[in-house]
Design a protein that fits this description.
alpha/beta, 7-stranded parallel beta sheet, binds nicotinamide-adenine-dinucleotide, binds UDP-4-deoxy-4-formamido-beta-L-arabinopyranose
Length: 345
């Protein structure tokens, strides 16, 4: 049985990936400092799968502490989700973003080298494409970032490419996620943002549950079919499966590989809103606001490469994503802090 170290495993995408890994009979070790998550998500993962996770509450920036995990366990591969991810916050606190995202990843790479761990899946982002010249976006498009968060991802991609160039026995997957939404169909785990959500789906579900008054739609004058922004929303469980497929690829000694993970389809803000109204069965209030600075009109992936080389194809529709996001939100109105809920598996 192979052992996978999942950094940031208590977070949104990490927790769903832990479910997928445990269901595929991998041993899972999680390292997370819980700066944007809580241990309850891991307890829920254990409940969903009936399997155990070994958890270390450690900051990946603290190399000496992190090394303990490598000394105590024989690790076959690492999926490195740990990082700060809010674009707006990164503009206000660039140094924190560079420190956290860069140092944690440099520590991981160095410890991999020292302890002979040869496979790494790295969480990159569609943000590395900036405003693409056309859609769909292919992996060989120019890379151009517009904010410190995106810059950390691009810098780390460069670091990993340089490292892989001279360390041919290391296998590294750069996975560029598009817009993950949805939740595990059990309703036990999902996205649990702190404070006011930055992203569309958690904002909509919080309006639907009555926590926020209305959705502000950031512009309806884009050059898109209905004027609102178009994105490639991908179910987090599809994304999680993509990680397991990428791991399998790495175990064939692939060297460095890069894949878009999305659905290949664009949906507008109004499409998502309508999808959520259908899932909840009532109307959701919205207002058209000014464009959000830094937003682009449209962004969706070509997932041909991931399909050809990994066999990855998203299986969940936008309707499924809305159903599962709503199921999570209504069962957990206060996220993981919700008390005494009896949930159906
Ligand atoms: P998340 O915030 O839910 O999960 C990240 C986890 O990392 C959290 O549990 C947090 O506590 C932990 N963490 C952060 N810094 C750490 C550190 N120094 N040491 C240990 N743990 C640390 O975010 P997510 O949505 O699950 O994203 C996971 C990864 O995917 C991130 O790297 C993010 O940049 C990337 N990504 C996310 C999206 C998205 O829209 N959610 C899109 C593209 C890429
Ligand atoms: C989606 C659409 C908004 C909120 C971000 C990061 C990206 C990646 C994924 C990490 C846009 C509109 C949103 C709202 C709205 N993360 N919107 N009202 O900006 O595509 O991508 O998350 O790597 O790097 O930039 O996602 O969910 O914020 O926005 O109208 O309250 O919804 O304008 O068209 P985005 P998002």
């Amino acid at each position: 049985m192979k052992t996978i170290l999942v950094t940031g495993g208590a977070g949104y995408i990490g927790s769903h990936t832990c479910v997928e890994l445990l269901n595929e009979n991998y041993n899972v070790i999680v390292v997370d400092n819980l700066c944007n998550s809580c241990e309850e998500s891991l307890k829920r993962v254990e409940r969903i799968t009936g399997k155990n996770i070994k958890f270390y509450k450690i900051d990946c920036c603290k190399k000496r502490l992190l090394e303990k995990v490598f000394v105590e366990n024989k690790i076959d591969a690492i999926i490195h989700f740990a990082g700060l991810k809010a674009v707006g916050e990164s503009v206000k606190m660039p140094l924190e973003y560079y420190q956290n995202n860069l140092i944690s990843t440099l520590n991981i790479i160095d410890l991999m080298r020292k302890h002979d761990v040869k496979s790494l899946v790295f969480s990159s982002s569609a943000t590395v494409y900036g405003d693409p010249k056309s859609v769909p976006i292919y992996e060989d498009f120019d890379l151009k970032v517009t904010n410190p968060y995106g810059r950390t991802k691009l810098m780390l991609e460069d670091v990993l490419r340089d490292f892989a160039n001279v360390n041919k026995d290391f296998n590294i997957a750069l996975l560029r996620y598009f817009n993950p939404i949805g939740a595990h169909p059990s309703g036990l785990i999902g996205e649990d943002p702190n404070g006011i959500p930055n992203n569309l789906m958690p904002y909509i579900t919080q309006v639907a549950i009555g926590k926020r008054e209305f959705l502000g739609i950031f512009g309806n004058d884009y050059n898109t079919p209905d004027g609102t922004g178009v994105r490639d929303y991908v179910h987090v469980c599809d994304l999680a499966r993509g990680h397991v497929l990428a791991l399998k690829k790495l175990f064939t000694n692939s060297g460095l590989v890069t894949y878009n993970l999305g659905t290949g389809k664009g949906s507008s803000v109004l499409d998502v809103l309508k999808g959520m109204e259908k899932a909840c069965g009532f109307e959701i209030k919205y207002k058209i606001l000014e464009r959000r600075p830094g937003d682009i009109a449209q962004c969706y992936a070509s997932c041909d490469k991931a399909y050809k080389e990994l066999g990855f194809k998203a299986q969940y529709s936008l309707e499924d994503m809305c159903r599962d996001s709503w199921n999570w939100q209504k069962n957990n109105p206060n996220g993981y802090k919700t008390k005494n809920k009896i949930l159906v598996k």
